[in-house]
Amino acid sequence: MQLSPSLTTLIEALRCQPGIGPKSAQRIAFHLLERDRKGGTQLGNALIKAMTAIGHCQSCRTFAEQPQCEICLSPKRQDSGILCVVESPTDLLAIEQTGQYKGLYFVLMGHLSPIDGIGPSEIGLDILESKLQQGGINEVILATNPTVEGETTAHYIAQLCYRYKVDASRIAHGIPVGGELDLLDGMTLMHAFSGRRVVSQN
Amino acid sequence: MQLSPSLTTLIEALRCQPGIGPKSAQRIAFHLLERDRKGGTQLGNALIKAMTAIGHCQSCRTFAEQPQCEICLSPKRQDSGILCVVESPTDLLAIEQTGQYKGLYFVLMGHLSPIDGIGPSEIGLDILESKLQQGGINEVILATNPTVEGETTAHYIAQLCYRYKVDASRIAHGIPVGGELDLLDGMTLMHAFSGRRVVSQN
Ligand SMILES: [Zn+2]
Ligand SMILES: [Zn+2]
């Protein structure tokens, strides 16, 4: 017996979600059809809305539905003079959830990876460079992941900072090498922030 | 910082899926936005389509996009004179995947549960009764789950079969008590079928 076309399509489509294999996808599809069609339809609408309405903040590149995100629009954040560079919006979120950092962000949406054709402009470093050039930023905190690519990216940005006479520091304490920043608990992240070391100072 | 409204709605909506908690929902939402917007939109459309297009077969009550499902429309299946009663479409699917059973099905979409207000007509037993009355069915295989409710439901249907002089058998071997039918491997399921015992014979 073949499943009906819409059901086959749904089970296949559910697998775009990380961690959802064929068996989980089938169970989810049947669960929604049997017990929660309203929830299934709401999820459908929420997905379509989110995929079209959510773009990127013109200033920091994180996800935003307006031209600029809430953080970039905050005068208090703008006055901080501190810019934290992260690889992804989930990293930004993890740092925000500590409730301690009050500066601005710059979200690379990736890291330098020449082998994959990802150079400085693919991760917005041209935008970051013009920010450094404009002035108003006194310190850049490099919070890229402690992986080879993350370190390479941090090193590249540190050189940019040196060129524009902006202090750059690298978060250090407590991040397990090869680990993922957005999986850390808040305490470890705060230690990483307070234990940052200067990598370029003017 | 608050997440943007469409993103908050999406993360909440993703949780209608069994096994997806707040942390998984957030990771899925960010994954789709960062790396697979096309997949996210396709999933949205597949959900909306499936929740509206998929109804129930008028004859066996399983999921179908046409008035009758593929199995009920098969003359070979109709000629078998065997009807297997299961609780859910996933149970039907598990039995079909063994490739050995060639009869018809009747899908209860639940089981008797007086405490929850689920009586015979809520699980389609009026439709099943008229099938037995019409004739053409020589044996009913009771493949409800081996739980208290599943056994009670099987017992109730066995009595219906007795009334209409139709043999009824209960699948038996190999099903762990309290287990879920659709989680069993095909071999165990086949043993359960071949080891079925008569519970009502005329
Ligand atoms: Zn922003
Ligand atoms: Zn059918």
UniProtKB/TrEMBL annotation, chains A, B:
Zinc finger residue ranges, C4-type: 57-72
Record CDD domains: TOPRIM_recR (cd01025)
Record keywords, A-Z: DNA damage, DNA recombination, DNA repair, Metal-binding, Zinc, Zinc-finger
Gene3D superfamilies (UniProt xref): 3.40.1360.10, 6.10.250.240, RecR Domain 1
GO biological process: one example: DNA repair
Residue ranges of every copy of the Toprim domain listed in the record: 81-176
Keyword DNA repair tagged: yes
Gene Ontology MF, one: zinc ion binding
Superkingdom as given in the UniProt entry: Bacteria
SUPFAM superfamilies recorded: Recombination protein RecR
Keyword DNA damage listed: yes
Function: May play a role in DNA repair. It seems to be involved in an RecBC-independent recombinational process of DNA repair. It may act with RecF and RecO.
Family in the record: Belongs to the RecR family.
Name of the protein: Recombination protein RecR
Organism: Pseudoalteromonas arctica
Gene: recR
